[in-house]
Amino acid sequence: MATIGLNALVLRTDASYRNAGPSRYTRNLVENIISASPSLDFTVFVNDQVSELPFTPARPVQLRRTRAPTSRTGIRILWEHFVAPWHIAISKLDLVHSMLNVVPVASPAKHVVTIHDLSFMQITAAHPPLRRWYLTAATWLSVRRAAAVLADSIATRNDVIKLLGADPRKVHVLYPGTEPVFHPRSCNENHAFRHNVGQHRPFILFVGTLEPRKNVDVLVHAFGSIIRDRIFDGDLVLAGGRGWGMGAIDSAIAQSPVRDRIRQIGYVNEGDLPFWYNSADLVVYPSSFEGFGFPVLEAMASGTPVITSNLSSLPEVIGNAGLMTEPRDTAQLAAAMASVLTSPQRKEAMRRQGLVQAERFNWSITAKKCLNIYQDILEPR
């Protein structure tokens, strides 16, 4: 029986912005891989702040919690390169899957690596120079050392091949899935939630870390336009932690004539997030760059119409189920928002199409594809 190591050091269980994207990906993939593979043994490596897995494994696994404070990025990097190889050797692991871009420089086992995106190469202002240098060099080496590279989307796969020179034969697309908590709720549930959080007017929702590439400033301007033209009489709710480069967003809100209609609610815990999606009249996610784009998928799975941008991986996620615009075109975004908010028929059609599109993204299917890749590495045909 082969033994697989799962590097889940990015997994977080606390209520913070760090328990998002890569953390949720890792949690869901690990859970579904363990559930779908009775013939493999697993050792799961977690950071110092995770005392137990945030789910009940389908069968027993070895949980290795690091003594070093690997919840801190710098310590995690050192541990992965200089301590992980020792653990891999003494545990006699046959294969190790690292779920955030980087595999150890030296290790006795075969490796699989997940690359979510290459934003550090494409949006250089989003990362300090030292981080950009390290991630570029380490990811370049990792795609050469790994037996297989997993990408969240076709867009990311293309970036990995083009920018890192990866062998196309070993770069596989594994779309993330939809979490079961994201599904349509009853009118009574949504009404009670809105009452509890004090959201008494209709609202447009944005979910994501507030940073320049999300184009929240464009959304603020477009929202002001549809309020001014009396197309919509509600609020704009911005859900997500404050990221870097907040100047343009803060300025857009401060200068907006409808700033009293713009509500910033910060990081939203996992229990409330499905209800925010369900209660919204429309979800808008005009990001310029995404490795995948979870908010688009989560909104569709919740039965809420979505508008997103026409760049990077987002067309793959939304398919024909929603509207797409140029991410920096305020007038185009305002027109798209108006076309949805003024047409009950369009809203209903987008709701139905979104639910169908969301079903294409299934964690169980993703896990089985991942296991097939493991098997091909362990037992080459």
Q: What's the number of extended β-strand segments?
A: 13
Can you write the helix and strand succession as a string?
EHEEHHEEHHEHEHEHEHEHEHEHEHHH
| Major sheet details | 7 strands, parallel
Stretches where pLDDT is under 50 for at least 5 consecutive residues are: none
State the domain count. Answer: 2
Number of helices: 15
CATH class of the largest domain: Alpha Beta
Oligomer: single chain
Using the alpha-carbon principal axes, give the shape.
globular
Mean pLDDT level: 94
Q: Roughly what fraction of the amino acids lie in strands?
A: 15-25%
Strand-pairing-aware structural class: alpha/beta
Strand order in the sheet with the most strands: 3-2-1-4-5-6-7
What CATH calls the topology of the largest domain is Rossmann fold
CATH superfamily of the largest domain, called what? Glycogen Phosphorylase B
Question: Which second-level CATH architecture of the largest domain applies?
Answer: 3-Layer(aba) Sandwich
Structure description:
- 42% of the residues lie in helices and 15% in strands.
- The protein is of the alpha/beta class and 381 residues long.
- The protein has two domains: 3-177 and 362-378, Glycogen Phosphorylase B (Rossmann fold), CATH 3.40.50.2000; 187-358, Rossmann fold, CATH 3.40.50.2000.
- The mean pLDDT is 94.
